[in-house]
Amino acid sequence: MKALITGGRGYIGRNLEHLLKALNIPTVVFDMDEGRDILDDRALSLPMRKVDVCFHLAAFGNISECEKAPAKATETNVWGTFKVASIAHMYGVKVIFASSFAVTHPENRFTVYGLSKALGEKLVLYYGGTVCRISNVYGGMDFTDLKDSVIARLMTGRYEDRGHGSETRDFIHVEDVCKKLVRACEVGHGPIDICSGRLTRIDELVEMSKDPSFPNNLRALDPFAY
Hints:
- By secondary structure, this protein is of the alpha/beta class.
- The protein is globular and about 50 Å long.
- It is built from 10 helices and 9 strands.
- The protein has a 6-stranded parallel β-sheet, with helices on both faces. Strands 6-7-9 form a 3-stranded mixed β-sheet.
């Protein structure tokens, strides 16, 4: 198997590339940081015709940033996903689409991000790809550099208590996410939920962060961790 990762210089993309190399799977990274745009048909077609699977991670991914720039978010998350799915279909390449639990979350499903991801799912499914909905990811390479999540802020001393301690989140380690994405190559169209299956209260998370083993102590609670 040969793989293409769109958005391969992002947080999950870097960790996925690392896993694929460990599995001796030849991998091509396609990312805006290297001047490679998923909206460019020719640039996308060149590597696509040489691979068997495309992990489509490229996205305008921050909910608040999508609200500030809805046109850019829609262009990337909808039109860009159409380009990836349709070109992959042309060359017989399977697409594994990194979607989000935002498409079903009551507070996020009608945001620009949630709606754009939902439309992306429809396009990927239309062209025969596989949809994976990923929950809150943490850990691994470049986590605190590339993510501004509650766990990243707790790890770097930037967490501010804003009275949301009773709220719950499903957290999953990036290594487990990447392994599940690879396994998705072997299954049907989904949607596949990539999550821990365990909800953690924010105030519980704050207490866990006081342990030197954090966030490994959180991963130890995941019943589905590899």
